[in-house]
Amino acid sequence: MVTGLAPAAHGSNRTGRVFTGDTAGDGLYASLHRTGFASQPDSTRADDGLRLEGIWINAAVRCAPPDNRPTTDERDRCLPYLAREIELLENVTTIVALGAFGWECVLRALRALDVEIPRPKPKFGHGAEVQLGHRRMIGCFHPSQRNTFTGRLNADMLDQVFSRASLLSGGHGL
User: What is the pTM for the complete model shown?
Assistant: First the structure.
């Protein structure tokens, strides 16, 4: 499972598929293709033929927030939906949390599902890993323009995280 921030106003809010039609999705889907989770390296619209295998992509917040910055209230109102989604995806063994916001939201959702969260609370970092019940969470810088244009995140870094996720989940990609 990959948990991002929220739908982008001109991306998934417009196209109907998470990380589709925006620059963050360009790098994400290319990496998913290179690491065996996606049938093609790009996603431009919901009916473009893309198939995902062994992966579920979601967003912690369900609406496109102003300036792509969800409020605490938006995060908290959407938390039950994320928790229920995780609960329904009971076979998920690996979660890639995109950004500190995604990391925090997954921790909150798992706590709501009575999963014990280690103390001290695990800190987000690119490549950070933590065991949470029967799931392993990996942190990944969000593939936003801010991170990719500045070089904070590059294709090799994304591929390393998704290669690790594939290994942890038994290589269930394409």
Answer: 0.92
